[in-house]
Write a structure and sequence with these properties.
- Helices cover 41% and strands 17% of the residues.
- It is of the alpha+beta class and 70 residues long.
- It has one domain (2-63).
Amino acid sequence: MRKIVLLGTMVIGVAFLSASPISVNWSAAQKTLTVSEDKAVAAVGKPLSAGSVAGVHRRQERRHQTTPPK
């Protein structure tokens, strides 16, 4: 019975840590455990990035031009 409770606690803990923006870090040198909240950084307005739709469309247009740009 104790193994089942321990396993259930571990599963709930893992589910919580994977669903929330929390990082748990272990420092072997200082032997400390730190818990920190991750911050999301959104890059808005970057159409020149390689994976954006506008950037892909722009590259395709450049590749398919029939006359070279002057």
